[in-house]
From TrEMBL:
Family: Belongs to the AAA ATPase family. In the central section; belongs to the AAA ATPase family.
Protein name: ATP-dependent zinc metalloprotease FtsH
GN (gene name): ftsH_3
Name of one Pfam family that matches: AAA
Organism: Thalassoglobus neptunius
Positions annotated to bind ATP: G251, P252, P253, G254, T255, G256, K257, T258
Length: 674
């Protein structure tokens, strides 16, 4: 195994034998080009120096000085005469006199011509018909003259200058064609263009191991076999076992898929080649497939190694489905990837690791056994994983004594690894901005508020807007505090942040993998609590509840059409599109149910939302005193903490995890638990 001498340089696919001889042959060609350019520069410099020592004069002025006997010597070179003056001062005076006559009658100084300063030598151009007459006049004046052909150096210099563009073009084509006989291979005429853009990282370059990857125990366990195979392939081959050729890392953005891939290479101590899926796609057909061939050829020559393809969905989308366009170049590139992965021998210690957050759009041929055999889901970290990630990033900054990373992890449920890194960095930036010597817990709280709620805005609201916002957020806070199934309220503020005029911050105390109907109905009441408070106090609805209505409508529609939580609809799923498993987005398609069913779904949604709003209004009416008190505190200090809410409303009712109850229903089958 030969390591690359530099980091982040495209790998070379040359071997060690004939490749070195070819390299020596290639390296000699640029020296001839340098010598050629050096001669051109010398000739050009010589001409420039010679020209600077002579003054170009008109032919008429030369004839006047010739008749006056002021020309000492001359040399005729074709249609050009070069010579020297007998008396330079006399020639200069005569030239000034000539220009003074030319300037007679010119009133504006800017239009007057000035005589140039003459040098001891001169040159002038001779009209073709004056050549024979000129020789007789110079002989009559007693001038020493001779006739010469163009100087060889001048001819050489002019030839080099004229031929320079053609020489450079021919040199480029000759140099490119000598690299390889393969016109679109790794070193052909378009060698660098069709060459793989994969970057190689040596084992000694910022080595990453599993110790640097906090959490992800399941993913590390799945990949440990890959590490052991790269270290000791003979142990697996002895029993006839074959390690997976490809490993597909799936998960939301920012969860550390690239970091895990580099950790596998670091644990195994093998070279690591990294490339993005979009780097295969070019406007020229065949370039992507050529880059794939070069990348896999290089990987095989440097086995054992890791070949990492990030964002493989850019090139590995389903063929012929129209998703992302029917780009023929993309499909040809995908075909080449499939072919190369089939071409791996069972003994070739090359592991292909790919990462994507769109596994649903990948071509089935990529996912079948024999290509990407193993699929590893890298989800957002658990509580212990978040603590580990925070310790890794917090080790680079100075923490105050009051910082408890366990508490920070408890308040960041749902954060990805990238978001946790950003949280630590934002806290450090806030501490530096305030001139502190260490990052304390207040800095982490401010950083979390900035990430989750947005940056505070400077806009000033009117008094009525502040009061409506205060009651709106107080309504959310009271419902969130009194309903045990929802996440507890952490903070309420009417400071405009991001796109919101006020925010009620809910921080979960536990990680939930499942939601029941009771929790969903209570969440709907919390969503509509702000709107209900506005109607209760001001007898009007505000436009600030737009996002609340949108979220509530989405949850209600899912309850009815996707989760079977309506007795009238029954246990049937009616979906308008497929939701992306990681990004939370939908790919809409044509509706597959009747208009009558759609009308019934809308009616059931409306019934659920009206019931939730009535429950929110009734709860706020029963707690009107607390509503006013929290609102007044918000108007006075703009922020109300969890402790202050507890003083007003009392201890929060804890959720009964082991409680099993059967919801009661009315005559229409609608749940009346609330």
């Amino acid at each position: 195994m030969t390591d690359s001498p530099e980091q982040n340089t495209p790998p070379s696919g040359d071997g060690s034998g004939s490749g070195k001889a070819t390299q020596r042959g290639r390296s000699s060609f640029p020296y001839y080009m340098l010598i050629f350019l050096f001669l051109v520069l010398i000739a050009w410099g010589w001409q420039a120096i010679s020209a600077s020592q002579r003054t170009e004069v008109s032919y008429s002025f030369f004839l006047s000085q010739l008749d006056a006997g002021n020309v000492k010597s001359a040399s005729v070179k074709g249609l050009k005469v070069e010579g020297r003056w007998k008396n330079l001062e006399e020639a200069q005076e005569q030239l000034k006199s000539t220009y003074e006559k030319l300037n007679e009658g010119v009133t504006e100084e800017s239009q007057q011509r000035k005589a140039p300063e003459l040098a001891d030598a001169f040159s002038t151009d001779v009209p073709p018909q004056e050549n024979d007459e000129l020789l007789r006049r110079m002989e009559k004046s007693g001038v020493e003259f001779g006739s010469e052909n163009e100087d060889f150096t001048i001819l050489l210099m002019q030839s080099l200058i004229y031929l320079l563009p053609f020489a450079l073009l021919m040199g480029f084509l000759f140099f490119a064609m000598r690299r390889s006989s393969d016109p679109m291979g790794s070193g052909g005429m378009f060698g660098n263009f069709a060459k793989s853009q994969a970057k190689r990282f040596r084992p000694s370059d910022q080595q990453t191991t599993f110790d640097d990857v906090a959490g992800m125990e399941h993913a590390k366990q799945e990949l440990q076999e890959v590490v052991e195979f790269l270290k000791e392939p003979a142990k697996f081959q002895r029993l006839g076992a074959e390690i997976p050729k490809g490993v597909l890392l799936m998960g939301p953005p920012g969860t550390g898929k690239t970091l895990v891939a580099r950790a596998v290479a670091g644990e195994a101590g093998v070279p690591f080649y990294s490339i993005n899926g979009s780097e295969f796609i070019q406007m020229f057909v065949g370039v992507g497939a050529s880059r794939v061939r070069d990348m896999f050829r290089t990987a095989k020559e440097n086995a054992p190694c890791i070949l990492f393809i990030d964002e493989i969905d850019a090139v590995g989308r389903i063929r012929g489905a129209g998703v992302g366009g029917g780009h023929d170049e993309r499909e040809q590139t995908l075909n080449q990837i499939l072919s190369e992965m089939d071409g791996f021998e069972s003994s070739a210690a090359v592991i292909v690791i790919a990462a994507t957050n769109r596994p649903d759009v990948l071509d089935p041929a990529l996912l079948r056994p024999g290509r990407f055999d193993r699929h590893v889901t890298i989800d957002r970290p658990s509580r212990d994983g978040r603590v580990g990630i925070l310790k890794v990033h917090a080790a680079k900054i100075k923490l105050a004594d009051d910082v408890d990373l366990q508490d920070v992890a408890n308040g960041t449920i749902g954060f990805s690894g990238a978001e946790l890194k950003n949280l630590v960095n934002e806290a450090a930036l806030i501490a530096v901005r305030e001139g502190k010597n260490a990052v304390d817990s207040d800095d982490f709280d401010s950083a979390r508020d900035k990430i989750t709620m947005g940056v505070p805005r400077e806009e000033k609201m009117t008094q009525k807007e502040r009061r409506m916002t205060a009651y709106h957020e107080a309504g959310h806070a009271i419902l969130g505090w009194l309903l045990p199934e929802v996440d507890p309220v952490h903070k309420v503020t009417i400071v405009p942040r991001g796109r919101a005029l006020g925010v009620t911050q809910f921080i979960p105390e536990e990680e939930r993998m499942h939601m029941g109907e009771l929790r969903l109905r209570q969440e709907l009441a919390v969503f509509l609590g702000g709107r209900a408070a506005e109607k209760l106090v001001f007898d009007e609805y505000g436009a600030g509840a737009e996002n609340d209505l949108k979220r509530a409508s989405d949850v209600a529609r899912r309850m009815v059409s996707a989760w079977g939580m309506s007795d009238k609809i029954g246990p049937v799923a009616y979906r308008d599109g497929e939701e992306h498993p990681f990004l939370g987005k939908e790919m809409h398609e044509q509706r597959k149910y009747s208009d009558q069913t759609a009308f019934l779904i809308d009616q059931e949604m409306r019934e659920i939302l009206i019931e939730a709003q009535e429950f929110a209004t009734k709860t706020l009416e029963e707690n009107r005193t607390a509503l006013d008190e929290i609102s007044e505190k918000l108007l006075d200090q703009e922020i109300v903490s969890r402790d202050e809410i507890e003083k007003i409303l009392g201890p929060r009712i804890e959720r009964e995890d082991n409680a099993v109850s059967k919801p009661s229903t009315n005559g229409d089958g609608q749940s009346t638990d609330e």
